[in-house]
């Protein structure tokens, strides 16, 4: 009475892989697939299908929760009164596991490794509907990843093919099992050994904001994440301290973090899992408690829009307000479903560097999605970038979007200027390499 | 298996490979068999060949064979028995993974013959040294209970599970709790009549409570959800204990997994009812806001679920996110389902202090491309005007600006919303009327037309050319849809009662057309009633048609208070996402049917009573009905504004045509039928309030309808409940 099963559909809506549904009639998964495909077919456009679709044909009614990944649909069917969020959280975890195992999640990789996907499904979702082990640390002991298999095969001497490889697979089972699930720490496998011990932290902050017509910031929130990659031997007990921990508010932590220590001394004390994991989530709120505490948006856009009949013209000027270089800036503008074409010219007005040329930027118009896209790979400070152009439309009064979507990245920068003070290792004696990297990105809606 | 497979084809080749002397060839063949199985090809004929490969020390191959067995055990139960020996042998394997795998697979096979061999290995597995085996075995007990409950009881597995709550490994505790909960649910739902014997398989005592609270902090996210759900079922002995639970559960808000956060929120919402210390309640509520806001930075699917739950929480604790409205501002590229939920929440959070920001957002949304969203935004402006009196004028100004855009659907929606504002604040915004009337030609939707006609009729004495304007609709009377006809009829009669001298001609014309040329019986009936009233007693006509209508208000909740309490207990469940009690859409068919029947009989009782009353009444007694119905109509009409905004029924209610309840009744159900088909979009959840409040009308329906009417009336209601 929870998650009945999981079905993976290819881009045409046909199932590639599904869990066994042993306790259900054969039509059960089919009904859900059909319900989803019908809903998707009926939807006038993407994003209008509710993420939870109710399926009422059966005597016991159920629903399916679906997400899209790499063109495929991952579908979790739920019955009984369960939280759909569990289904989504499970889908999320499962997709992450697949990424961990195969690198890329695509129809091809899943089809090539279907046996592994099946094993993963069996390990992660019990047939009575309870999610089981989804921690990659523990799974890697039970289900061998394809890269490991090929490594094992490669290490086998080519002289006697076949027989040794099988023995290898068999012996792996008992070896791995000695470590599996005997670890006293549920998220970390026991007996890890590395020649080179290192732990890396990536602090990623994402700004989400809306700027109103008159250029004032309506909302801007910064959500931060500390991603870690740990390759440490034994049972390392780490303490991570910050010089300004107060910039982190509304924190959520990986289960390994000792909450009491955080509440008491604002230090993150934990025994990390092996490999990649997210140590903490937080929100950054600027200290001053003004009525609206917005984080300033690091760029500005001036838009001169001129709407005419059967099209319009525009002149957009982007200026960086930051000393750091912004990268991969991308501005998207939906021209309305009747838009037919667009023509633009790029220019820039750099104050210092004369060679700020069009080479830095490019634009394109996708006639299928009706999206005009402007990209600037490297946006230095104190310069402005200008996109002038016009578009045509089939209808007399075109209705383009009243907002631009701007995405950007800022390497080695954080909005909160969070600083790591030190990382201490106790309970192990080895020296480890530690690294901290800051990265920020933003997605801003700029209205006109 | 008496028929031999043909000696060629894919299956034959597979069969040859499965019997190959080379191990890797056999393993490859198993993979191919599974691949064929996946794409739906029938490979059940290979059962004996696959079975031969079960005894292997290659764990991966074993798993694949087990996978095959699980798939075909149902269709080939007599063959599965051949696998039993291997299973039993595997359950004693030195490798814990193999032991667990054997137990898990045996539990999944669901074949009677296997089950009998399961008990001994399961007994061992429950006491296994390895926690992985124990936790697998715990879940297996629940599966066994599903198939043969008596075996579970005979073998004492239940007691063993109860002991395992004290296991040293938190993962085992979590799975044990999940298994016990499953058993508890199936035990209590299978024998609801047998209430005297104690079906509480898993009653949580104070001792268990403490064990759960300890395990809570140490197990995986899924284990936490299972434990939290068990805590939500616990009846605290006193307020001290409730406080203790809340304090211990609150740290779960800091978990990265959203489902843990929501499950924790559910526990808090349930146990906070018994918390007496005000400071603690305040503190708990304050701590709930940040994790909810954080959920909004998740992918849209998760956002949607979170928003649905937030919507519900706000109905109980409106102070929860009072300073956070900006978080809910819609982005242009948010999916529609997210936008619509955000919009609803924004209106819910509206207050004097943030109404300006809200209005400028709503105005912004009204210029977007998406028609549905634009309409909802304009409706939200109307709701804001009705909720916050001080902002009403600003709302009206925004609406006027929108009307001036002359975009057809914007104008029409704005007219509909203006009518609501007129009903809430009568005689306040008459200055707007000329602007509305100037757009008369633009209107082509019935709802917009009826709204404008209602306004003209209501303010007929203030509009100089009201007779001309209504004349336009009288001229096209026959072509109009029938709710427009009804409204025109009423409006013209209002006009006549207010300005009898200038409108004699038009009222004559409309009554003539309505009684002679109109094919809708409702329109004809109403026209006859008016005609009779006007000709016999104009005073009575005035009392009926110009009856005072109390101003409308929008309830802060979309569901009834009792249901709200029930749903809050279901936070983080399908019920809370659909805003409906679980039994209306979850399997317990009997409960659902019972309650529907009960409702049905209540209705028919009321109907009989009213029928007798109505039978003895003369025409003038319609007066009372008119008044009553107008008052009764208020809540329904309002609920309808929120819930059935796009159906003609709602339009009818709102246009204040309650003078003839029968029409409204019919149109409600007319509207509901359309809802039935539109039910795919779950977000327009039909609230049960609508049904319950509309029941008085059914009485009126019965008074003039043939006896078969009650059955018909009950029908759509059942559909409605059965919808989810």
Automatic annotation (TrEMBL), chain A:
The keyword Protein transport applies. Residues 196-448 form the MHD domain. It comes from the Eukaryota. GO terms for cellular component: clathrin adaptor complex; endomembrane system. Keywords: Membrane, Protein transport, Transport. Gene3D superfamilies: 3.30.450.60, Mu homology domain, subdomain B. The keyword RNA-binding does not apply. It is found in: Endomembrane system. InterPro entries: Adaptor_comp_med_subunit (IPR050431), AP2_Mu_C_sf (IPR036168), Clathrin_mu (IPR001392), Clathrin_mu_CS (IPR018240), Longin-like_dom_sf (IPR011012), MHD (IPR028565). GO terms for biological process: intracellular protein transport; vesicle-mediated transport. Belongs to the adaptor complexes medium subunit family. This is Clathrin adaptor mu subunit. It comes from Suillus plorans.
TrEMBL record, chain B:
It is found in: Endomembrane system. Residues 9-537 form the Clathrin/coatomer adaptor adaptin-like N-terminal domain. GO terms for cellular component: endomembrane system; membrane coat. Residues 684-696 have a biased composition (Polar residues). Keywords: Membrane, Protein transport, Transport. One of its GO terms (biological process) is vesicle-mediated transport. InterPro entries: AP_beta (IPR026739), AP_complex_bsu_1_2_4 (IPR016342), ARM-like (IPR011989), ARM-type_fold (IPR016024), Clathrin/coatomer_adapt-like_N (IPR002553). The keyword Transport applies. Residues 684-724 are annotated as: Disordered. Residues 703-717 have a biased composition (Low complexity). One of its GO terms (molecular function) is clathrin binding. It comes from the Eukaryota. It holds the Pfam family Adaptin_N. Its main location: membrane. Adaptins are components of the adaptor complexes which link clathrin to receptors in coated vesicles. Clathrin-associated protein complexes are believed to interact with the cytoplasmic tails of membrane proteins, leading to their selection and concentration. Belongs to the adaptor complexes large subunit family. This is AP complex subunit beta. It comes from Suillus plorans.
């Amino acid at each position: 009475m929870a998650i009945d099963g999981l079905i993976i559909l290819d881009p045409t809506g046909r199932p590639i892989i599904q869990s066994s549904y042993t306790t259900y009639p054969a039509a059960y998964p089919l009904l859900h697939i059909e319900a989803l495909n019908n809903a998707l077919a009926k939807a006038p456009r993407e994003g209008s299908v509710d993420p939870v679709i109710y399926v009422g044909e059966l005597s016991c009614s159920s629903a399916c929760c679906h997400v899209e990944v790499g063109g495929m649909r991952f579908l979790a069917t739920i019955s009984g009164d369960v939280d759909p969020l569990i289904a989504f959280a499970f889908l999320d975890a499962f997709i992450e596991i697949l990424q961990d195992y195969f690198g890329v999640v695509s129809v091809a990789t899943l089809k090539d490794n279907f046996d592994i996907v099946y094993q993963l499904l069996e390990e992660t979702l019990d047939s009575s509907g309870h999610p089981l082990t989804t921690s990659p640390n523990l799974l890697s002991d039970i289900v061998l990843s394809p890269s490991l298999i090929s490594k094992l095969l490669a290490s086998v001497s080519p002289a006697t093919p076949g027989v040794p490889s099988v023995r290898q697979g068999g012996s792996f089972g008992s070896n791995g099992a000695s470590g599996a699930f005997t670890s006293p720490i549920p998220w970390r496998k026991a007996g890890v050994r590395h020649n080179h011990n290192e732990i890396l932290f990536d602090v990623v902050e994402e700004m989400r904001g809306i700027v109103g017509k008159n250029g004032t910031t309506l909302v801007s929130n910064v959500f931060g994440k500390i991603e870690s990659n740990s390759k440490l031997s034994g049972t390392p007990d780490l303490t991570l301290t910050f010089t300004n921990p107060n910039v982190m508010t509304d924190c959520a932590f990986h289960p390994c973090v000792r909450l009491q220590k955080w509440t008491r001394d604002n230090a993150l004390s934990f025994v990390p899992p092996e490999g990649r994991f997210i140590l903490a989530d937080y929100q950054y709120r600027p200290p001053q408690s003004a009525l609206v505490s917005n984080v300033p948006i690091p760029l500005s856009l001036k838009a001169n829009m001129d709407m005419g009949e059967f099209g319009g013209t525009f002149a957009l000027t982007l200026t960086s307000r930051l000393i750091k270089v912004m990268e991969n800036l991308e501005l998207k503008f939906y021209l309305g479903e009747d838009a037919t074409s667009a023509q633009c010219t790029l220019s820039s007005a750099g104050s210092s560097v004369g060679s700020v040329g069009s080479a830095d930027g490019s634009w394109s118009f996708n006639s299928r999605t009706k999206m005009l896209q402007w990209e600037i790979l490297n946006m230095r400070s104190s310069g402005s970038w200008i996109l002038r152009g016009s578009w045509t439309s089939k209808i007399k009064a075109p209705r383009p979007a009243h907002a631009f979507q701007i995405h950007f990245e800022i390497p080695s920068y954080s909005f909160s200027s969070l600083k790591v003070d030190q990382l201490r290792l106790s309970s192990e004696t080895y020296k480890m390499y530690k690294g901290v990297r800051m990265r920020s990105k933003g997605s801003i809606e700029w209205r006109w | 298996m008496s028929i031999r497979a043909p000696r060629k084809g894919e299956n034959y080749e597979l069969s040859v490979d499965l019997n190959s002397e080379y191990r890797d060839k056999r393993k490859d063949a198993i993979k191919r068999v599974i691949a064929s199985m996946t794409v739906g090809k029938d490979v059940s004929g290979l059962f004996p060949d696959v079975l031969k490969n079960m005894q292997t020390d290659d764990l991966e191959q074993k798993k694949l064979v087990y996978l095959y067995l699980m798939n075909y055990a149902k269709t080939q139960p007599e063959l599965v028995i051949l696998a039993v020996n291997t299973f039993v042998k595997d359950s004693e394997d030195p490798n814990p993974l193999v032991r667990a795998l054997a137990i898990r697979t045996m539990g999944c096979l669901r074949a009677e013959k296997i089950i009998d061999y399961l008990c001994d290995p399961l007994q061992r597995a429950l006491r296994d040294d390895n926690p992985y085996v124990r936790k697998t075995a715990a879940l297996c007990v629940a599966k066994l209970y599903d198939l043969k409950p008596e075996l579970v009881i005979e073998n004492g597995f239940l007691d063993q599970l109860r002991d395992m709550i004290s296991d040293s490994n938190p993962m085992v505790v979590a799975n044990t709790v999940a298994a016990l909960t499953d058993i508890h649910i199936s035990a209590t739902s299978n024998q609801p009549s047998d209430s005297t014997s104690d079906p509480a398989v898993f009653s949580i005592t104070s001792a268990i409570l403490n064990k759960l609270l300890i395990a809570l902090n140490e197990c995986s996210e899924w284990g936490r959800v299972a434990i939290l759900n068990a805590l939500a079922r616990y009846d605290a002995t006193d307020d001290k204990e409730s406080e203790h639970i809340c304090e211990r559960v609150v740290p779960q808000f800091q978990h990265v997994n959203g489902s843990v956060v929501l499950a924790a929120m559910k526990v808090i919402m349930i146990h906070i009812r018994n918390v007496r210390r005000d400071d603690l309640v305040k503190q708990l509520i304050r701590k709930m806001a940040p994790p909810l806001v954080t959920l909004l930075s998740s992918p849209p699917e998760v956002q949607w679920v979170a928003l649905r739950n937030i919507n519900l929480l706000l109905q109980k604790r409106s102070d929860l996110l009072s300073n956070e409205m900006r978080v809910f501002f819609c982005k242009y590229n948010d999916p529609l389902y997210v936008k619509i939920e955000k919009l609803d929440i924004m209106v819910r959070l509206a207050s004097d202090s943030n109404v300006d920001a809200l209005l400028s957002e709503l105005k912004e949304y009204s210029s977007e491309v998406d028609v549905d969203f634009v309409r909802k935004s304009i409706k939200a402006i109307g709701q804001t005007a009705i909720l916050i009196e001080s902002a009403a004028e600003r709302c009206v100004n925004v609406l006027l600006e929108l009307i001036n855009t002359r975009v057809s659907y914007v104008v029409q929606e704005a007219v509909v919303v203006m009518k609501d504002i007129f009903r809430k604040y009568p005689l306040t915004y008459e200055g707007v009327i000329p602007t509305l009337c100037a757009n008369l030609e633009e209107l082509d939707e019935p709802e917009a037309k009826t709204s404008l006609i209602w306004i003209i009729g209501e303010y007929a004495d203030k509009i100089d050319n009201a007779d001309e304007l209504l004349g336009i609709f009288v001229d096209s009377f026959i072509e109009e849809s029938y709710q427009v006809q009804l409204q025109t009829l009423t409006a013209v009669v209002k006009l006549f009662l207010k300005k009898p001298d200038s409108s004699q001609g038009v009222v004559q014309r409309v009554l003539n057309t309505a009684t002679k040329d109109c094919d809708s019986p409702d329109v004809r009936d109403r026209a006859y009633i008016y005609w009779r009233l006007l000709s016999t007693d104009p005073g009575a006509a005035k009392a009926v048609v110009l009856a005072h209508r109390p101003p409308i208000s929008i309830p802060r909740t979309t569901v009834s208070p009792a249901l709200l309490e029930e749903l809050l207990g279901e936070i983080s469940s399908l019920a809370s996402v659909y805003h409906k009690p679980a039994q209306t859409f979850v399997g317990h068919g009997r409960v659902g049917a019972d309650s529907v029947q009960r409702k049905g009989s209540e209705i028919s009782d009321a109907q009989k009573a009213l029928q007798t009353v109505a039978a003895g009444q003369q025409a003038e007694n319609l007066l009372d009905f008119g008044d009553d119905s107008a008052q009764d109509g208020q809540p329904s009409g309002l609920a309808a504004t929120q819930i059935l905004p796009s159906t003609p029924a709602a339009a009818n209610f709102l246009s204040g045509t309650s003078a003839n309840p029968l029409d409204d009744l019919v149109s409600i159900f007319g509207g509901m039928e359309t809802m039935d088909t539109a039910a795919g979009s779950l977000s327009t959840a039909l609230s049960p309030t609508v049904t319950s409040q509309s029941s008085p009308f059914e009485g009126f329906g019965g008074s003039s309808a043939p006896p078969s009417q009650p059955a018909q009336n009950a029908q759509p209601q059942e559909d409605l409940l059965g919808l989810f």
